Amino acid sequence: MPHRKNIYFSYKQTTELEQIVQPISSLLQANGFHIVTDTKDAHIIASIGGDNAFLQATRKTGFRDDCLYIGINTDQLGFYTDFTTENAEQMIHAVQNAEVEVRKYPIIEVSIDGEKPFYCLNECSIRSNVIKTFVIDVFIDDIAFETFRGDGMIVSTPTGSTAYNKSVRGAIVDPLLPSMQISEIASLNNNEYRTLGTSFLLSSQRTLTLKVVQDGNDHPIIGVDNEAISIRHAEQLTIKLADKHIKVLKLKNNSFWHRVQRKFL
Ligand code: NAP
Ligand code: MN
């Protein structure tokens, strides 16, 4: 990537992080990179912080598919962060010596009531915001698949499968499989309401539609990654894999399964 030298730093503006970013900026500049302050001039978007910071960086920059994202953690390595601020020299060495590769991560596109879509790198979740259960009619393409009643549902990307999805016993999915996983949060199952009860995966050819049954208890909380959407009323969510990906710069010797092993086993 010798011709892609404009770097934009995305981080929480605190004095502590400012002090961490300063020497890394200088080091990168000394190695021929340019630091830019406008995302539209960037070829590379570097997030400083944990997975949370990486999720914010992609959201704030609009899930650009013409940029490379790189996650630089201030702490241990995470799921989206292959480098740490402590080893900035190592990072530059890796970049200059072809020890890095670009991975494409699938993202999910969610449209609420036909409005302009939101994108998610981890997941879209929909939950009741009151103690009572709420009801969702679940459609796969045009098939009325099931009626869900309970706390909510999670639709996760492969890279998001290790996050919220895993906490509800969803499967971990290899990011090389372009797919989305639907998992239940505390479904009520009885003679009236019956759901599959296990997670399932949909391919990029499918569209999932969640219709919130309008029964007076229909103001769900909709989350996209680590943000709640401030829409009070939602009737229908249309969810599919986006046509675009995000491209992440990562170490060749640190695969998704290395990270899963390191974090969970
Ligand atoms: P948080 O509640 O502060 O942290 C959730 C934890 O998940 C953090 O340890 C975070 O790592 C980690 N994480 C984020 N993305 C991950 C991924 N793809 N694979 C494995 N771990 C991941 O919230 P946050 O830091 O803003 O992260 C938002 C995410 O939290 C949401 O996208 C959702 O997946 C998850 N979440 C989980 C639950 C649950 O498990 N019950 C409930 C709500 C939300 P860092 O420490 O590096 O940030
Ligand atoms: Mn966090």
What is the string of helix and strand elements? Answer: EHEEHEEHEEEEEHEEEEEEH
Strand % is 35-45%
Give me the Rg, rounded.
Answer: 20 Å
Structural class: alpha/beta
Low-confidence stretches: none
**Shape call:** elongated
Total count of strands: 16
Q: Which oligomerization state do the chains in this entry correspond to?
A: single chain
Number of domains: 2
Quote the CATH topology of the largest domain.
Answer: Tumour Suppressor Smad4
Please state the average pLDDT score. Answer: 94
Please, how many helices? 5
CATH class of the largest domain, anyone?
A: Mainly Beta
**Major sheet attributes:** 16 strands, mixed
Task: Record the SSE blueprint.
Blueprint (H helix, E strand, L loop, with lengths): L5 E5 L4 H16 L3 E2 L8 E5 L2 H10 L7 E6 L9 E2 L3 H9 L3 E13 L5 E3 L2 E5 L6 E7 L2 E14 L7 H4 L11 E9 L12 E4 L4 E5 L8 E4 L2 E2 L7 E16 L4 H9 L1
Parallel strand pairs: 1-2, 1-3, 3-4, 4-5, 4-16
Antiparallel strand pairs: 6-7, 6-16, 8-10, 8-14, 9-10, 9-13, 10-11, 11-12, 13-16, 14-15
